[in-house]
Amino acid sequence: MSTLVIGGAGYIGAHVVRLLLERGEDVVVVDDLSTGAADRVGAATLVELDVAGDGAQTSLERVMSERAVTSVIHFAARKQVGESVARPAWYYQQNVGGLANVLAAMENAGVRNMIFSSSAAVYGMPPVELVGEDVECRPINPYGETKLVGEWLLADCGRAWGLRWTALRYFNVAGAGWPDLGDPAVLNLVPMVLDRLERGDRPKIFGDDYPTPDGTCIRDYIHVLDLAQAHLAAMDHLTSDAEPTEHVFNVGTGTGASVKEVVDEIGRASGLDVTAEVEARRAGDPPQLVAAADRIGEVLSWKAEHGLTDIIRSAWEAWQAGPRRIG
Ligand code: UFG
């Protein structure tokens, strides 16, 4: 019996793989290594395969049968909002097409359990202070749409052939559980600030005139190790005898931090001068996006152990360990 982690060589996936290996599970990783790295999967078996590519379904079915896979954790996806706006059809091919191939293979191979990486991007610009799972989903870009469509597809497979599934809607993921597993991309606030500091540039703040206490955008930052633990909690719940009552969970802390607070925390962790340049607002940024995180606590008994200080300290430590691969 083994767990198949698709996208297990990526930033979040590699944390889940390491935790699964630590608790003695047999793990197979499928990854196309387009943004992941082979040295992140440790003792797991790595199969290099693009789930959205030609013949992917057949190859996946073979892996599932040969390795007696009983559960799948599906991370593999494109996640750049701006790129999704520029290349919508490709995003649907990659994110929805890839998931469809995985699910078709699971149906044929008789694999019934799936944990899916969803995103707070499904909510768009929700008009509430704390976003609960039942808020109406109105994604504002193709990336968020592909995650919402993914959830619908899982629900359809649940009805059609008894797929047992859980979608985790991640808020703002940062930090590192181990120094060698830092975020390899420079796409989000924390690595973008660290990257500018490394180059001797000042951090950028995209807008300080939002209707928030210090004028900068507020987000719910979640430590990647806490997020990885949430996957294990979700998997344990899914594979227990109990019939799942909820399928969709926010993974956040319920507490927000502003861009300025994050930048200041980076200054404290690094000892560097983080005096920032304020730029114009970035299109499509909601002033505040913070999770209502009660459901995951009640149903999965999970809660975040690490706050912003741990997140930033671990990100700084991993950044110094380097190397970054994707810019
Ligand atoms: N920001 C800066 N300076 C930077 C980088 C970011 O001020 O150099 C600001 C952004 O404008 C935003 C905040 O920092 O206000 C966080 O930005 P990120 O790009 O790190 O994260 P987002 O909240 O925009 O995006 C995250 C995920 C997306 C997901 C989105 C919505 O990265 O995948 O949440 O849930 F789609």
Automatic annotation (TrEMBL):
Pathway: Carbohydrate metabolism; galactose metabolism
A Pfam family matched in the record: Epimerase
Keywords in alphabetical order: Carbohydrate metabolism, Isomerase, NAD
Superkingdom as given in the UniProt entry: Bacteria
GO biological process, one term: galactose catabolic process via UDP-galactose, Leloir pathway
Key word Protein biosynthesis present: no
Co-factor requirement: NAD(+)
One MF annotation (Gene Ontology) recorded for this entry: UDP-glucose 4-epimerase activity
Enzyme Commission identifier(s): 5.1.3.2
Catalytic reaction(s) noted: UDP-alpha-D-glucose = UDP-alpha-D-galactose
Coiled coil feature spans: none
Domain NAD-dependent epimerase/dehydratase: 4-252
Signal peptide location: none
InterPro entries xrefs: Epimerase_deHydtase, NAD(P)-bd_dom_sf, UDP_G4E
Enzyme class: isomerase
Family membership: Belongs to the NAD(P)-dependent epimerase/dehydratase family.
Name this protein carries in UniProt: UDP-glucose 4-epimerase
Organism (species): Georgenia muralis
Taxonomic lineage from the root: Bacteria, Bacillati, Actinomycetota, Actinomycetes, Micrococcales
